[in-house]
Write a structure and sequence with these properties.
β4 and β5 form a beta hairpin. Strands 1-12-11-10 form a four-stranded antiparallel sheet, with no helix packed on it. A four-stranded antiparallel sheet has the order 2-3-4-5, with no helix packed on it. α1 runs antiparallel to α2 (about 195-225). It is an alpha+beta fold and about 230 residues long. The two termini are about 20 Å apart. Among the domains are: about 1-25 and about 195-225, no CATH class; about 30-95 and about 140-180, no CATH class. It has helices at about 1-20, 195-225; strands at about 30-40, 40-45, 55, 70-75, 75-80, 105-110, 115-120, 130-135, 135-140, 145-150, 155-160, 165-170.
Length: about 230
């Protein structure tokens, strides 16, 4: 009986250890990329500290207006006018240098964030637009980056002159625990670490076996006593 009690105690300790060692989901930055429309006759005017993007065009505000300025909030056009809105623009600045291995055509930095357009990279990475923080850059999409705008929150807007299209990368608020939690039309795959449920199943099995053995031994003792 003493040996059984020791074995059972060991099983319980193993369960506790495995439960405490279960890996937690790794929180990762996530974002959504939206299409701001055709860049033929249009361009990006600026981005503000809240992530609103102003796009200019040569049409859209009536015959008497030489230019039309449209403000996009979270990728949705909210207002327009013939005069550029007065916002707290936060467009970023050209980076001092690009990360090693990138042949950058244009760069934009703001705080910890960096965005760039590159081609014929010596490290073999594909041509296109990259975004990230520090030395960790993710490939966003192919195409060129003729205009770059980046605010301090990591909201990133650019004009793809190759395909004549404008885009905005919007930082998602709050941590993303699973891929299904992130809405990413242009996919950025948040990194998650799955929970090893197999360990939990093994631990449950050990407890069940221990209980059954204890019941069986108790039954045998009662039988002998009778």
């Amino acid at each position: 009986m003493k040996r059984f009690a020791q074995w059972f105690s060991s099983a319980v300790v193993a369960v506790v250890v495995m439960s405490s060692c279960l890996t937690r989901p790794v929180l990762a930055d996530s974002y959504t990329i939206v299409d701001l429309g055709n860049a033929n006759g249009h361009g990006i005017y600026g981005i503000d500290t809240a992530g609103d993007v102003v796009v200019w065009g040569t049409s859209g505000c009536g015959m008497s207006a030489s230019y039309c300025y449209v403000t996009y909030s979270n990728g949705v056009a909210t207002n327009d006018g013939s005069i550029a809105p007065t916002l707290a623009y936060d467009n970023g600045a050209a980076c001092g240098s690009a990360p090693a291995g990138f042949n950058a055509a244009k760069t934009k930095c703001n705080g910890e964030w960096m965005g760039l357009g590159s081609f014929y990279n010596p490290n073999g990475d594909p041509n296109g637009v990259y975004f990230g923080s520090g030395s960790s850059l993710d490939f966003i999409q192919s195409g060129s980056a003729d205009q770059l705008f980046l605010n301090s929150l990591g909201d990133f807007a650019w004009t793809d002159g190759r395909d004549e299209e404008m885009y905005e990368l919007i930082q998602t608020t709050g941590p993303v625990l699973n891929e299904s939690d992130a809405v990413v039309p242009e996919d950025f795959d948040p990194v998650t670490t799955p929970e090893p449920r197999s360990l939990l199943l093994v631990a449950t099995g050990l407890i069940w076996i221990a209980v059954m053995l204890r019941r069986s031994k108790a039954y045998r003792y009662r039988s002998l006593a009778e």
